[in-house]
């Protein structure tokens, strides 16, 4: 069961233990961490946008084309931006650190 370290939109830090096999988006919404997930994980809305800590970004694997296209259309992205719905958590993600992106 990986533990994820999160900085929320208001700047507070929290850690949550999550089940492997769920998406990062599901884990964040399950713990009421201000992620809307409007499209339900279809990579079509961007409301689960997060900034992954640089030391973790490469360990998550590359963005899929659909995810990259959606992120290109958002305003507050950077080189570590990902959609939480496109990251399936595994035990190897124990210690993953991220910041929930500002709402556009």
Describe it.
With 104 residues, this protein is an alpha+beta fold. The chain has a single domain, classed as Beta-grasp domain (Ubiquitin-like (UB roll)). It is 18% helix and 20% strand. It has three helices and five strands. The chain has a five-stranded mixed sheet. It is globular and about 35 Å long. The mean pLDDT is 94.
Summarize this, please?
The chain is α+β, with helices and mostly antiparallel strands. The protein has three helices and five strands. The protein has one domain (3-100): Ubiquitin-like (UB roll) (Roll), CATH 3.10.20.30.
Assembly type of the chains comes to: single chain
Number of helical stretches of at least 4 residues: 3
Report the β-strand fraction as a percent range: 15-25%
Q: Helical proportion?
A: 10-25%
Shape label: globular
SSE order? EEHEHHEE
CATH architecture: Roll
CATH superfamily: Beta-grasp domain
Tell me the CATH topology. Ubiquitin-like (UB roll)
Overall number of domains: 1
Q: Regarding CATH, which class?
A: Alpha Beta
How many DSSP E strands?
5
Major pleated sheet: 5 strands, mixed
Distance from N terminus to C terminus (CA atoms, Å) equals: 32 Å
Structural class: alpha+beta
